[in-house]
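User: Can you predict the 3D structure of MaoC-like domain-containing protein? Sequence below.
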Amino acid sequence: MNDHQRTDGFTAPIDDRYFEDYTAGATYEYGNVAVTEEEIIGFASQYDPQSFHVDPGAAKQGPFGGLVASGWHTVALMMQLFARHYLSTVASLGSPGVDELRWLKPVRPGDRLSLRLHTLDTRLSRSDPRRGIVRTLAELIDQSGEPVLRVTVVNLLRTRDSA
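Assistant: Sure. Here are the predicted structure tokens for MaoC-like domain-containing protein:
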């Protein structure tokens, strides 16, 4: 099956998915991404150059007892899986923001992360009924089944009729 034909648990593939295809109460799990020391250091060197993110030697003496990924790196990994599997490629109109972003557990080299999503609620926009608002609880889960990141993502999506 081609990537554009995958439904990833939805009734419609990602390139034909609109507001109406998101159902409150639905849960999805996607992907598996390995976190490497090189990626942790590379990301942090550019965006979050704290010693426990960029210097393995110094990190051993730091608050986490070793090198850990920047929280912003874990958000980027979440977003990669979110966009690749859940968020419509034809109806997404962006996001007004996120709520309650929490880093729950350090992410270390060698961790394997997957994404668990729970569609919290959906509603038509009051200001423009050609679009809807979808709120989704997103969690990155490590190889032990423990959440390392939790955030509520808010997305604006076109309705099928407005396409």
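The mean pLDDT is 94. The helical segments are 37-47, 51-54, 56-60, 71-85.
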